[in-house]
Q: What sequence folds into this?
């Protein structure tokens, strides 16, 4: 049998490609091994690496945020571990890596998001994969891992179709289980569990939420700015202002994708302020427009069809003048405008969720290296770990940071 590879990475998504690149760089610093071809090997189950990178950001790839801290992420694990991991690769160094190392100049747009200047997600995937291959990593696509065994010197990795490869260090970067057609089908969790890990129950995140409310379904296509609040045990857990999109099946858009985590994981109530402003702003608007008809005053700020639906839901006449509202009617109206509980009954599922929440607990890896505490020699990175970011490039940020750390650590140890 041939000599074991020094490092094998399972999964060629954002985290796995980054892990392979930095593992190869680390290994090359140590000089060539007796079998240089087998220094670092990347095993990708699908026919191509980086399917999600190529589909990301509506084809433009929201590669990074402009700013980030631990409040942009969700994990059931320790916030200190999360903060520590985020500090391992600062945003300005990541920017420089993409621009100067990979030759992908970036530009900031859409409020806090960074995209490559080429605006081509598939070019981002191709350039990262090219760099990985130029660094000497042997990339095997169509190599779906079905079983991993521990050996005396490390691990034996088996493919679905009967191939096998031995390695000394192993990195699992199999993603979660959202959009399984992209290759991340949850098999990584099963592999990690067999190697001694537990699992924070996976749930769909950044996912549209569904509703049975026919009145809203009739407004499908309406987009509006809202301030959303996730409410759990009468306490506001998170509040942000983003755009909401009404769909045939419920609610979507950045506001809902960001808020969805609270519903799918905790069954929290999602409340919105239509138009985004606080109650005082609506009060001031209604006062200033006292001679205006209600539907016209609300349509100054909201799409007309939505304004009419909300007036109907409060049980008022659209033609009534703002100044003629009784105190009770005004309170009901402002309450509906600013504290509206979205009629949500479910979510659109893993098939369309952009990411998977839950995963391998952060407490089961060494936060300095991402080495498994259950199986020394094994490293974990990316969406497999119990951490997801909100919309805006935070999930790639997590994949790049943890991929690099796992790759460097595996090469070093
Ligand atoms: C449509 C869409 C758009 C998105 N846009 C953005 C965006 O613009 N910005 C952003 O920050 N995030 C975005 N995301 C989220 C982002 O793509 C993911 O968070 C990120 O790709 C996770 O990287 P990963 O490497 O951990 O997992 P993945 O990208 O899921 O990669 C895992 C890889 O492992 C392979 N694999 C799985 N199991 C096995 C196995 N048993 N054997 C071998 N290989 C295996 C899979 O085929 C896959 O290639 C988007 C997600 C989707 C679905």
A:
């Amino acid at each position: 049998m041939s000599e074991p590879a020094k490092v094998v990475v399972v999964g060629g998504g954002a985290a796995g490609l980054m892990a392979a690149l930095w593992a190869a760089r680390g290994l090359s610093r140590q000089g060539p091994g007796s079998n240089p071809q087998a220094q670092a090997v990347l095993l990708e189950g699908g026919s191509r690496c980086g399917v999600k990178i190529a589909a990301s950001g509506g084809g433009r790839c929201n590669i990074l945020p402009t700013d980030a801290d631990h409040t942009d992420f969700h994990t059931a694990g320790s916030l200190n571990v999360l903060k520590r991991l985020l500090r391992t690769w600062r945003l300005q160094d990541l920017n420089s890596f993409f621009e100067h190392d990979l030759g992908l100049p970036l530009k900031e747009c859409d409020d806090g998001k960074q995209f490559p200047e080429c605006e081509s997600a598939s070019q981002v995937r191709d350039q990262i994969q090219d760099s990985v291959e130029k660094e000497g990593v042997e990339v095997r696509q169509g190599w779906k891992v079905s079983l991993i065994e521990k050996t005396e010197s490390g691990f034996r990795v088996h493919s679905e179709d009967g191939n096998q490869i031995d390695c000394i260090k192993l990195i699992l970067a199999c993603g979660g289980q959202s959009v399984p057609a992209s290759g991340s089908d949850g098999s990584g969790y099963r592999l990690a569990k067999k190697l001694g890990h537990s699992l924070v129950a996976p749930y769909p995140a950044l996912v549209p939420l569904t509703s049975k409310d026919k009145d809203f379904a009739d407004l499908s296509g309406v987009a509006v700015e809202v301030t959303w609040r996730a409410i759990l045990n009468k306490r506001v857990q998170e509040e942000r202002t983003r755009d909401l999109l009404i769909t045939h099946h419920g609610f979507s858009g950045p506001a809902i994708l960001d808020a969805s985590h609270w519903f799918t994981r905790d069954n929290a109530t999602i409340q919105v302020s239509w138009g985004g402003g606080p109650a005082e702003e609506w009060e001031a608007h209604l006062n200033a427009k006292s001679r205006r008809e209600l539907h016209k005053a609300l349509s100054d700020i909201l799409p007309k069809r939505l304004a009419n639906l909300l007036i109907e839901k409060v049980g008022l006449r659209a033609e009534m003048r703002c100044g003629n509202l009784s105190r009770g009617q005004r309170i009901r109206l402002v309450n509906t405008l600013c504290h509206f509980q979205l009629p949500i009954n479910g979510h659109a599922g893993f098939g369309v969720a952009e990411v998977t929440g839950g995963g391998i607990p952060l407490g089961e890896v060494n936060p300095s290296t991402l080495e498994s505490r259950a199986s020394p020699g094994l490293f974990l990175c990316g969406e497999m770990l119990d951490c997801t970011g909100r919309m805006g490039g935070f999930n790639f940020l997590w994949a790049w940071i943890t991929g690099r750390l796992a790759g460097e650590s595996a090469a070093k140890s």
